[in-house]
Input
Amino acid sequence: MQTIQSRINPNSQQFKDNREGMLEFISQLEAAFEKGRFQGKDKHIERARKRGKLLARERIELLLDKDSPFLELLPLAGMERKDGFGAGGTNVSGIGLVAGKLCMINSNVGTRKGGSVDYATVFKSLRVGEITEQCALPTVNLVESGGANLPDQAKIFNYGGETFRQITQRSKMGLPTISVVFGNATAGGAYVPGMSDFAIFQKQAAKVFLAGPPLVKMATNEESTDEELGGAEMHSRISGVSDYLAEDERDGIRIARELMEIVAVHKPHLIPDLPIEEPLYNKEEILGVVPANVKTPFDVRELIARVVDGSKFSEFKPEYGNTMVTGWAKIHGYPIGIVANNGVIFSESANKGAQFIQLSNKNNIPLIFMQNTTGYMVGKAYEEGGIIKNGAKLINAVSNSEVPHITLMIGSSYGAGNYGMSGRSYRPHFLFAYPNSKIGVMGSEQLAGVMEIIQKAAAKKRGIPYDAAQAEMLKQMLIMEAEKKSSAWYSTSELWDDGLLDPRETRNYLGFALAIVYNQEIKGADGYGVWRM
Output
């Protein structure tokens, strides 16, 4: 493979401006992460401490192997929703090593709204379930939840049922779920341990029932206590819902770790050879390479050079369709194909990308998509040249590709360019984004300009005067609204990505994600749907 020769000048004003702008985004990102780590009000945490309880993140720390990485997923879900519990919801989810095996971990934040499930939390759980299945991972649930947040029940009831369906389907696939219950698991929440392959209940703490004493009294006039209805001892000795009775929280986590030693899981499909070559260029330079302003162009090869092993990249068709960069490399020793934008997608770029995706599937190589595009090229000449059919080829190739996809949004992600570059709706195994990234049908100014043209034409058609002053005011309001809803903050709040990341951590995120996807055999597609030649 050839080594990418960087042409970046770290002393240039452009580099310095990029770095300054990106550092501002990172500062905002760190502040958002701090909000996402909120585990409840002081009084709730103090009450938990008095009861000898651990916090959600402490439980994860004890469960994980010593020095295991932990890839937290959707940590800012719901951060901008006014009808929710804030960044991350009431669940901490991510992937780490337990007893030497990669597994998905979900830990209810019982000290935050009692661990009850709001809108963002249920959709976070659904996305986590999707990743778990795609990556063929076992699951450990650390349970303490009051069930559905009742004011949200109309929004989440139907979707919540899907999470239980996922547990049972994964069990059928041989992907076990272990649930450790430390406190409440009420109503629908009772089905989490009930549908798990293994259920561990903490003595004198777990309370697992479909209806608590007040509701039972209302429904049947029966008097009962929490322990009689759903205590750990009752479920361990009488109902059989519990498989193991843990003395305390640490004992419950110990049992879960023992079970992870027993369960059969996928063995790594590939273990990279050592030593691993580091990139030739400092990761700090990424902040000066990638512009904070997505309107500023840059050569994506400069980012690739600071991410891949040894900065080595075997570029495919380097002289053709040059607004699409394609080629093969390794990250932390894992072979990968890269499909990256260098701007708008022309017919040649789309055809090149589609061919490269086919080749990567034939050779069973996972793909990393680096999105930075305003979409497909428009205009009379390009329509006559078949931009629709050629763009459709790329989307067809992405849709029917069967190797794992990891998508990284590094700049603009507009229009069907998002689709052709394996956006959220194309089910990539992981999708991460930089905090400067933008997503939408088109840029905010283009959107406002199109609406202005339409309004002028409508006024002329109806024979009424066009109020330019009012139109300008509406245009600026539209730009502001579109800017907000295309931002990375809005995108991650709405769960359109699996997490925002500091660009300097790109190699680490991608490396761990590749270790996860390479944990099972990779087999590419044998065929594709019909496309126009």
